[in-house]
Request: fold
Amino acid sequence: MENVNITIDGKKISVPKNFTVLDAARKINVNIPTLCYLKEINQIGACRMCLVEIKGVRNLQASCVYPVSEGMEIYTNTPKVLSARKTNLELILSNHVQKCLTCVRNTNCELQRLANELNVEDIPFTGENIKYEIDDLSPSIVRDNNKCILCRRCVAVCKNVQTTGVIEAKNRGFKTEIGCAFDKSLDDTACIMCGQCINVCPVGALSEKSHIDEVLAALSNPNMHVVVQTAPAVRSALGEEFGLPIGTAVTGKMTAALKHLGFDKVFDTDTGADLTIMEEGAELINRLQNGGVLPMMTSCSPGWVKFCEHNFPELLPNLSSCKSPHTMFGAILKSYYAQKNNIEPEKIFVVSVMPCTAKKYEIQRPEMAVEANRDVDAVLTTRELARMIKSARIDFVNLEDENFDDPFGNASGAGVIFGVTGGVMEAALRTVAEKLTDKPLENVEFKSCRGPEGIKEFTVELPNLTLKGAVVNGTGNARKLLEKVRSGETDYHFIEIMGCPGGCIMGGGQPIIDSNTRATTDVFSLRSSALYSEDKNQEIRLSHKNPSIIKLYEEYLGEPNSQKAHHLLHTKYEKKELHKK
Reply:
């Protein structure tokens, strides 16, 4: 790529010709503020916070969309620039409900941060504001347009990354708002509840439907036995809420905090992941050997499953019939665990701590219940758990590590890596390869499944079969691949699909990463390395070698895909319309 020579605040640099002014400034750590900008997702110059002065150009320019050129002289902090930015921010604030102290994003709000940085002490612009009704009908996501600043970041990620496109800018001028077609609630659309819109929102206009009150009520009920399970991705991100570096594994501190909160038992969803591999692996082998529907596709991600129900219903037979790990585990806790401990299933309240907002939708699906008893009663996101810990004034950073409780206290490393895109596939291959070859693997790591690429393809040599697979993250990438599957252009045997770009570690319920950090930090690599390190340090790294799982089958389930296993651990899905009528 050809370079050009430019000057930024008196510093001469050479940058690629296709750079914007913002790209160039960030290369030399010149911090230009942004609100609407999301690297490679939303570059529209709408908020006008990134204005800069360019010598010879009459007006100030939005640096996120203005291209560099040879000899350009740029000034990022002149009085004219600072005054314009502050005025634009005041205009945005004038049409923003100012309830910061009661907002879920208080102290973690990009608008609030800019107001502090630009010394906004008063709003000189007053006038009529439109009052919007809060849309809280979705089981996963709450929309409050009174806080919306029309940055369109949510629209861009929904339309361009996830390709669901259920929200859009409507109307014009002062009446512009972000909403759904025909003024419908988000719950009446093909929203997959992934929560990626929440993760990119700079303010509190989007948030998860909180289950904190339900969990606190259960914890205070002496007649309820309240157990909690934590997804693998949570441990790689929870520490961020307490000031720890991105990618710090906090498994022991997280477990200790949950015990301090008063849960009767603290379990690891990794055990549910190991159970999923036992069932899913057996299902794959059965399909391979007996002419079943191929390619088989994973069903761990409820956002992806809902996307398939809406957009590719003809491929539903390809989905594994396995429930997701936490709902599988919930079913076991309310059956096997209940019997072992002489507790009535109705008196067991199962809480899942998940990196995912779609899990809130998943648990209320009628399919996720056994004999009308829901597998899981409440889902807390990583963010919600952090709020509970903070409100209980637990000194998280200085907690002594504690272990998960028995009888499900130890899971395999294969269960841990479920939190990363490619992890389900790798965990399944570890077990399927050993089962089919009937000998131990020399190397349990299938690194061809790893990495942030949207679509990864690989082959694995097995007895009498070259297994062809693919790993996909983000439903936009899933759409690309599934179009090929639908048209018969592919010959895969097994496909892993995760609804969120990057997999669960980048899920819609994880700690919010501001746009500047997103642009300059490889969050995916940092969080995923925490899980791969934990896997590498585990004594047991294969799901079928987990003693708790072996005992569960010996004492209760019999064998994978048995009648009892199907009753408790498997489900089915059905076609959904793109819009409710």
Observations:
- The chain has 20 helices and 19 strands.
- The chain has three domains: 3-93, 130-207, 212-569.
